[in-house]
Amino acid sequence: METTDLIFRIVLIVVIFAISLVVAMYSTYAERKVAAFFQDRIGPNRAGPWGILQPLADGGKMFLKEEIIPTNATGFLFIVGPSLAILTACIGSAVIPWGSAIAIGGHTFDLQVTDINVGVLYIFGVVSLGVYGIMIGGWASNNKYSLLGAIRAASQNISYEISMGLSIIALLMLTGTLSLKEIAEQQHGFAWNVWRQPLGFILFLVCAFAETNRSPFDLPECETELVGGYHTEYSSMKLGFYLFAEYINMFISSAVMATLYWGGYNYPFMDNFAAWAGPNPAAIFGVVVLFGKIFFSIFFFMWVRWTIPRFRYDQLMDLGWKILIPLAIANIVLTGVISTLLK
Amino acid sequence: MSTFYFIAFLSIFFSILVISAKNPVHSILYLILTFFTFTIHYILLNAQFLAIVNFIVYMGAILVLFLYTLMLINLNKESEPVKPFMVKVAGVFGGGILAVAVASSLKLIGASNPVLLQNPDLGLVKNLGKVLFNEFLLPFEVSSVLLLSAMVGAVLLATKEKEPKAA
Amino acid sequence: MESLSNKRKVLEVKPLNFLERAYLPAIVGGLSTTMKHFFKKPVTISYPEEKREFSENFRGMHSLKRDENGKERCTACGLCALSCPAEAITMTAAERQKGEEHLYREEKYAAVYEINMLRCIFCGLCEEACPKEAIYLDGDIVPSDYLRKDFIYGKDKLVEAPLNQ
User: Fold this and answer.
1) Which of C23, C34, C44 is closest, CB to CB, to A307?
2) At what angle do helices A236-260 and A3-38 cross, to 10 degrees?
3) Does B115 map to a domain?
4) Residue B76 pLDDT class (50, 70, 90 cuts)
5) For chain C, what percent of residues have pLDDT higher than 70?
6) Is B53 in the same domain as B73?
7) Is the ipTM of this complex over 0.90?
């Protein structure tokens, strides 16, 4: 690898890492603001203008709180839990194409950390790994509520991973590649996959809600039944990490959803724009468009959270196994039949 | 090559920890680490698809279920069944036979040739798919039927038997 | 059992039809409802900056009144303290000296008049008991403070500002 390329990669990694942390930070603020607007309130407005410094204040508070490790907890694993949660949340961003290539001084730089040819599966692996943070933390707390939360998280993630995988298979039948970069490139202009896979998108969306433990599927931390769920015993920044990991997960899954179904960094009339403004501004505008899609998707996550009440656990399992999986299989068959007929 | 030895050392180290760990949950966690090192082995062999499938299926699903069950049944020293003497003898005997078999097979092989991949891209998704669905279509489908039958069997075991109608 | 009031309604539980069972239409309906609220004006009143208008009969902080010449009306009769169900009021009476006629209306006045705002329940009985129309609960909300002792309000905080200022 060339030196310039290597430096660019490192810069990109740092930038993406910083962006995901900042986005997650401000998602907490946005969550509170959005919730307030949905409930005809104002929301946080004291820290800085419009409460813009609220996340910093929250973070500072989290850091300064007392660290409590319960006597009967498994000390090492108790710390591993939240660390693993935030680690798995962060590494998902490595394969997402944030934009098309940018040319600076004769070099072209891909706005993607690495384009492995099993990108979609990599995302899957990371998502399926994400549950370990919750499970280990919940078990190590040595508390029955934590354990129940951990167990709920595990069974929920496993169940919804299946239908998520099946819903993606239908998409992969159309794209014919597992590389996220190629999938993004195929959706050039306005040929977004969501037009070809509406049912698949809805299935994926529902599963994404379940995988990120967001309401209405936030049963692992269901406070009415389980006190705090898997993070009952956690305090200080370890609790902060768990909460933060949820928001990073939301950001990453929004990015994945935008890339797989909503055309990634593509936007209508992008060729005309590129011809008018040059390739580099067009590429940068593409990044802006992608972030616009991501932010809308995050907003949608919040919108749903403040609208729909939580599922009951048996309803959750029924939905996952008896409705989503058959629908996903039907979607695969349908996609196969239609794409064969149209060939 | 040194990466390989390092990772191989880690896999053996973690697998020894799996069987020597006192707490069953710890032992599962070491097993997860062992499987993670296997994933790295696959990546070193440029078998990306196999690596990621090992990652998703074993680490992400099967071991989660292992952990899930172990967390629920809460094994500890008190609940450990006492093994009768004969079982211990049988265990030693079986282990000894395995050791002999491994030793003799190693002796038969002698110094093996360093493994060279004829086609380094064999492990990529496209090539693997072509091989699976052309050359090995029958075994592939048969194994999927095997899984299906296992699934049906599980469902059958899980469903309650309907009580005979009161005559 | 026969209903006497005839108000009982027999509910008919119909099985859900397909659209109702499919979750999604109901979810879309819910989302549109919340979206309507998203664009509504917030009902919040950001308190210290904005204040809600008090009603006519709002009872806030007490004030000890002066008459039209700026003399304190209170004559330290103690009826307010007696009527107070929370026993929040206490006072010490004193005799008016020569040359203090412009300060106090009657010959007797309250040298010390204290209300414990933590005890006060703002019932307004003191107001009703007062024969001299000297105490009214016409002030603002009692502000917060850090120490309990600071909630015992003396005459410095209770007596109305003199007229000529």
Assistant:
1) C34
2) 100
3) no
4) low
5) 98
6) yes
7) no
* C144 min Cα distance to partner chain A (Å): 18
Tell whether B5 is covered by a domain: yes
Tell me if chain B has a CB within 8 Å of the CB of A132: yes
Query: C26 in a domain, yes or no?
Result: no
Contact B56 A121 (CB under 8 A): yes
- Contact at CB, A304 and C33, closer than 8 angstroms: no
Closest-CA residue of A relative to B28 is A136
Which domain does B152 fall in, by range? 121-161
| Per-residue pLDDT, B118 | 63
Q: State which residues form the domain around C122.
A: 63-158
Chain A residue set in contact with C, beta carbons under 8 Å: 34, 36-42, 45, 202, 303-304, 306-308, 319
Residues of chain A with pLDDT under 50: none
Q: Is the pLDDT of residue B115 over 60?
A: no
- What is the bridge-based pairing of β-strands A99-104 and A107-111? antiparallel
Report the alpha-carbon distance of residue B112 to residue B101 in Å, rounded.
17
pLDDT score for C30: 87
- Answer whether residue C38 shows pLDDT above 90: no
**Residue A210: per-residue pLDDT:** 87
Do B132 and B92 fall within a single domain?
no
CA angle A304, A308, A310 (to 5 degrees): 115
Query: What are chain B's partners, defined as 3 or more CB pairs within 8 angstroms?
Result: A
Contacts of A319 in chain C (CB under 8 A): 23
Answer whether residue B167 is part of any domain. no
Q: How many independent structural domains does chain A possess?
A: 1
In terms of Cα–Cα distance, which of C63, C89, C94, C91 is closest to C161?
Answer: C63
Q: Which residue would you say has higher pLDDT here, B74 or A309?
A: A309
Is A in contact with C (3 or more beta carbon pairs below 8 Å)? Answer: yes
At B148 the pLDDT is: 92
Residues B69 and B101 in one domain: no
- Check CB contact under 8 Å for C41 and A42: no
Indicate if the pLDDT at residue B146 is higher than 90.
yes
Q: Does C120 show up as a binding residue in the annotation? A: yes
Beta-carbon contacts of A169 under 8 Å, excluding residues fewer than 6 positions away, are: A328, A332
C84 labelled binding-site residue? yes
Distance CA A145, CA C145 (A): 39
- Residue B104 sits in the same domain as residue B74: no
pLDDT tens per residue, range B47-56: 778 888 888 8
Q: How many domains does chain C divide into? A: 1
Q: How high is the pLDDT of residue A20?
A: 85
Average pLDDT over residues C20-33: 82
A35: which 2 tokens? Answer: 């919730």
- Tell me: do B94 and B146 sit in the same domain: no
- Give the residue from A283, A249, A281, A242 showing the smallest Cα distance to A264: A283
